[in-house]
Each structure stands twice: as structure tokens, then as C-alpha cells.
Amino acid sequence: EPTPKPTGISLAPARFELEMQPGSETTVVVNLDYHAGTDNSQPVRIVASLNDWTIDRNGQVRFEKANTLPNSASSWLIHSPAETMVVPGNVHAIRVTISVPKDATPGDHLTALIVEQRPDSLKLSENRRQVVIRYRMGAVFYIKVPQLRRQGSLEGLRAEADENQVTVTPLLKNDGNSVVRPLTSLKITDASGVAVAELPQKESLPLLGGAELVEPVVVEKRLAPGTYNVMYRVDFQDGKQPTEGITPLVVKERQVGQPSPN
Asked: What is the spatial distance between Cα 42 and Cα 129, in angstroms, rounded to a whole number?
């Protein structure tokens, strides 16, 4: 038997970045794809609404009520339909019109289109056990009003080692008004300058305008006692040279006969 495909709802695109002048207007389409795993899947009623969102200092995405966070763009968007029945196998279009006010301030303004299933749309047939899954997902919007400034900096760097790993904790900051997506890499060298561990360059979490981000990096390596240097390199992709931070790391001898710390 062919295995049934999983049932699910997806939104595409999941992220919009639109550079728009004050006083301008544009319309985009968010496509909602409801793919059902079984032939007898029911249509579901979904509701679309707007939420503010941000990324907190620890890298968690937070959704808040519309028009409550600074730099919210929620009041600039009108979406339709706000409510619709979605049928398996069909792609449903939600039109979103963005109107930027004439007095909009420069920088990124954020909002999210949240799509969720209405609880009352779940009809349970008798004598059948049914698994009910509620769906909730979002497409995030960055509305970018010129003049955009991106200004990333590495404000702090800490490293500590335990039995089996090294945890490196950088503090990144963006003094600009528009998101940067830092590329970060890491190298640990011993006292003679030989590399003992390296992490290749990767994109970190987005660093929003005016925000700080603490994103610990774990290197799974057991280091012998000694003195090391941890080099953390970050390219903020803001048009400036990459920044490098160095912090020493001392790994002490383990005391014989003592229980290892958990």
C-alpha cells in the first residue's frame, strides 16, 4: 500500500521583504496550500489575522497583538479573505495590500499574517476515532522604508569549557534600523596557535534593527587542560569589513578522585 502523505497546511512565501516608499501601496499574494493525506479529508475553515512579531534577545520569535510593538506595520495591511473554507488539493490565495503612510519613519516595520484553523470547523463523526490537528502558521513581513541603515557590532564574547564541549557566547548588536543576517564562524587554537576545533561559516538568526542577540554556539569537543584562544568572526553583511573577536579559554586539570560536575 502506498503510505498516505501527511496532511498539512503550508504558506508560501513564508517571508516577505519589501522596500517601499512612504505613501506607496502594493499588493502581494500569500498562497495557502492544504494538502490532505487521505481521500476523505474534510474542508476546513481557516481565519487569517495580523500579529506584531519580534525576535527577543535570546533568539526566540515572539508574536504579540497587532499594533502593540514599536515599528509595527500591522495597521498598514489589509488582507482578504479574512475567513475561508479550504478544500484539500487546492491552493487558496490570500491577497494582502500594504499601504505605507506618508509620514512613515525610515527603517523596518514588521507584521505577520497568521493563518489558523477555526476550532468550530472540526466536525467529529460518531463511532470513529479521529485525530484532530489544529493548524497555526504565519508569513512574516519586513516593510522597509528608506533610508535604511545596517550597523552590526560584536559587543561581547565569552567562552567556557566543560567535560565534553565548549560553549561560546557572543553578544551581537544592530544599531541600525534594518535587519542584518550575520554570517558567523569560529576557530579554537591551542597555545602554539594550532587549530583544535573549527566551525564553518553559517548564517545566524536575523538581527533586527535596534536589537541585541545572544546566540550561544556549542562546539562538541573535549579539550585537554591548557590555554586556548577562541576566535569568533562575524560578517554582518552590512557593507563593512567582518569583525573578529578573540577571548582566552583556560581548561583546568580535573581533580583526581573528585566526582565530575554534572
From this structure: 15
Give the Cα separation of 41 and 39 in Å (integer).
6
Average pLDDT, the chain: 90
Give me the amino acid identity at 216: P
Task: Look up the pTM and report it.
Answer: 0.86
Question: Helix or strand or coil: residue 121?
Answer: helix
Helix (H) or strand (E) segment spanning residue 204: none
Query: Looking at the DSSP assignment, which residues form a beta bridge with residue 98?
Result: 26, 77
| Closest to 79 measured CA to CA, from 109, 34, 112, 53 | 112
Instruction: Report the alpha-carbon distance of residue 259 to residue 262 in Å, rounded.
Output: 9
**Strand pairing partners for 28?**
96
Distance CA 77, CA 73 (A): 7
CA 4, 29, 51, 212 torsion-angle sign: positive
Q: What is the pLDDT confidence band of residue 4, given thresholds at 50, 70 and 90?
A: low
Burial of 165 (0-12, 13-18, 19+ CB in 10 A): middle
The residues facing 231 across adjacent strands are 187, 246
Distance CA 148, CA 145 (A): 7
